[in-house]
Each structure stands twice: as structure tokens, then as C-alpha cells.
Specification:
Radius of gyration: 19 Å
Oligomer: single chain
Structural class: mainly beta
Low-confidence stretches: none
Mean pLDDT: 91
CATH architecture of the largest domain: Alpha-Beta Complex
CATH superfamily of the largest domain: endopeptidase domain like (from Nostoc punctiforme)
Number of helices: 4
Helix content: 10-25%
Strand content: over 45%
Distance between the termini: 49 Å
Shape: globular
Number of strands: 22
Largest sheet: 6 strands, antiparallel, barrel
Order of helices and strands: EEEEEEEHEEEEEEHEEHHEEEEEEE
Strand order of the largest sheet: 17-18-19-20-21-22
CATH class of the largest domain: Alpha Beta
């Protein structure tokens, strides 16, 4: 394949030995790290890091392509951020970045990488006013099989964590969470309901939170907002139908 370059747009992205979420994590990419894509396997990409030459497989939704000129521009004057955490406003909402991420040396207020612009924010922590507001604070957190934090979370871990703050104790896995709550007809759905999704093999394999009748927040590559309908989830970024609806539950 021709040379394709990209940057890590997730705060932290796991790099795995094989093209599977269940495969061993061999390293991580931090936001802004440049890679070359060397192989494609379904939704997985084999990458070669510019920074340390390490190779492995990454979820394709956690990186974004760059043109040759954009690569050169990004590498010019690049520095490593030393602050404990920084919050940026980017194309897909707010994002918390850990120390060690990459940014241009002259970027104190905002910076651009490829076609994406990021602006630094200064915010104080505040108790979330609602379940949905708290869920939105996780936007752009990277997907990590088994994860439960801003820097790596899976779909059911996400639902468990946001409900726990409001004293709802959910089981760990989506296949367990689907067993609780009151099942709702699709026409009666409302913001705050949980939606569960079924795989081709008939297993409950995904869960998300409705933030309106037609939108859902869920962890899929990263925590994101997508379209929700009677057939399930349709990704906003490319119009792909990604998850088949099983049921809607209200706690």
C-alpha cells in the first residue's frame, strides 16, 4: 500500500500485538503522536510510530489521516506537554489530555493538526448536575477493553461509572446490565435510557446512554455521540450502521 500517515487523536490509544481488543497491549500512543500505517485488517491498522519506531495494531477510529505537508508542519517545533492534565476543545468536543502529549511549541491558546483545530480550556472541577452532563464529560475518552477511566474505558465500564456517581449500582458487563431496569417500547424512549445492542451471534455486546430521542453517547473507538434509531446506531462520522438494537431499559 502507499505510504499513509496519521496522528493519534485519542488522549491515549492502546497499541496491541494483534488486531483485536482482547490482544495483549504492547504500548500506547499519546495524543499528537505521528504514525505510518503499514497494513489494514478490517477496522484495525498496523502502525509504525515516528517517535520510537514501535509497531503494533490500533483501532482505526483512534487516529486521523494526514497529508505529507501536514506531517512536516506538525513535526516542525513539536514539544512534549509537561502539565499534569490539559483540557482542549476540539472538533468532537472537550478532551482531557495527559502530560506527555505532543503539541507545537508556540501553541499557548490553540493549535492545528491537519484540518483539526484544538483550543486550550481552563476549567475547574464541579459536581455534575445530571447523569447526561456527567456522561458528556467523558467525550473523546479512548476505548480500552476492560477500562473504567477517562484515559481508557469500554462501553459497559462507561455506563457503570457514570451511574455510580448518581447512586445507581450497575453490574460490570453489558450482558449483565441488560437484566435490570424496566424495558421500554422504542416509541416511549427518552434521554437517560440505556440502549443495548446485539451481535450477529445473538450476544448482548454493547450498551450506551440516550442523550435525546435520536442521539446516543457510547464508547466505540472512543466516547462519542452518534445517531440512534429503531435499527440501532449509525455513526455520525461516516454514516455506517455500527450496532443493531436489542432493547431499551429505564432504571
Amino acid at each position: 500500500m502507499s505510504r499513509i500517515h496519521a496522528f493519534c487523536k485519542a488522549s491515549i490509544a492502546p497499541v496491541r500485538a494483534e488486531a483485536s481488543d482482547r490482544s495483549e497491549m504492547v504500548t500506547q500512543l499519546l495524543f499528537g503522536e505521528l504514525v505510518e500505517i503499514t497494513e489494514v485488517a478490517d477496522n484495525w491498522l498496523k502502525i509504525h510510530s515516528f517517535m520510537d519506531g514501535y509497531e503494533g495494531w490500533i483501532d482505526s477510529k483512534q487516529i486521523q489521516d494526514l497529508r505529507e505537508k501536514e506531517v512536516a508542519r506538525w513535526l516542525d517545533g513539536l514539544v512534549v506537554e509537561h502539565s499534569e492534565f490539559r483540557i482542549v476543545q476540539g472538533p468532537e468536543g472537550k478532551q482531557v489530555l495527559p502530560k506527555g502529549f505532543f503539541r507545537p511549541s508556540d501553541s499557548e491558546e490553540e493549535f492545528q493538526i491537519g484540518k483539526s483545530t484544538y483550543r486550550f480550556l481552563n476549567e475547574e472541577d464541579a459536581k455534575p448536575s445530571s447523569l447526561i452532563d456527567f456522561a458528556l464529560s467523558y467525550l473523546n475518552a479512548p476505548y480500552l477493553w476492560g477500562g473504567k477511566t477517562m484515559f481508557g474505558i469500554d462501553c459497559s465500564g462507561f455506563m457503570q461509572q457514570i451511574h455510580r456517581v448518581f447512586n445507581y449500582q450497575l453490574p460490570r458487563d453489558a450482558s449483565q446490565q441488560v437484566e435490570i431496569g424496566l424495558e421500554m417500547d422504542f416509541e416511549d424512549r427518552e434521554a437517560g435510557d440505556l440502549a443495548f445492542f446485539i451481535s450477529e451471534s445473538g450476544n448482548i455486546h454493547h450498551v450506551g446512554l440516550l442523550i435525546s430521542k435520536d442521539e446516543i453517547i457510547h464508547a466505540h473507538g472512543y466516547v462519542r455521540i452518534d445517531h440512534f434509531g429503531s435499527n440501532g446506531i449509525t455513526r455520525k462520522m461516516d454514516g455506517v450502521h455500527s450496532h443493531k438494537l436489542h432493547s431499551i431499559k429505564r432504571l
